[in-house]
Amino acid sequence: QVPLVESGGGFVQAGGSLRLSCAASMRTFSMIDMGWFRQTPGKEREFVAAIARTGRSTGYGDSAKGRFTISRDNAKNTLYLQMNRLKPEDTAVYYCAATYKPPYLRYMEEAEYAYWGQGTQVTVSS
After folding, report:
1. DSSP letter at 54?
2. Which stretches of the chain are assigned E, i.e. beta strand?
3. Which whole-number Å values give the CA distances from 50 to 2, 13, 41, 70, 87, in the listed order?
4. Using CA atoms, how far apart are residues 42 and 14, in angstroms rounded to an integer?
5. What averages of pLDDT result for each successive group of 10 residues across the chain (126 residues)?
6. For the chain, give me the number of helices (H) and strands (E)?
7. d(CA 104, CA 59)
8. Most exposed of 35, 44, 48, 97 (fewest Cβ within 10 Å)?
9. What confidence score (pLDDT) does residue 25 get?
10. How many Å apart are CA 42 and CA 31, to the nearest integer?
């Protein structure tokens, strides 16, 4: 098991910023690749961003490019998602995910991630 706990969600006006965190309670945090996904009611989970275990490689979904930044602090066992210039369409439950098996080019696919947090709600008002 890889316990993952997201935090940092909340209400924000359009144009504002939020920083999500995902804390992992494990000693092998530096051995997992991680990602952020989001989901709104009635829709499939959408890839937001991913980061390799070293932190040297990142990838973003189209909706996140230029506005969101994924990062991690392996010393603190924590994953982050800095979200700027938020839009109402960013409203969703945001999930962090982890995998020991490197997803390589499949990092955007939720099936590649074995472990998931419970999610944190982000609501952006217009």
Report:
1. T
2. 4-7, 10-13, 18-24, 33-39, 46-51, 58-60, 68-73, 78-83, 92-99, 115-116, 120-125
3. 17, 25, 22, 7, 20
4. 23
5. 90 98 90 96 96 96 97 96 98 96 92 95 97
6. 0, 11
7. 11
8. 44
9. 85
10. 33
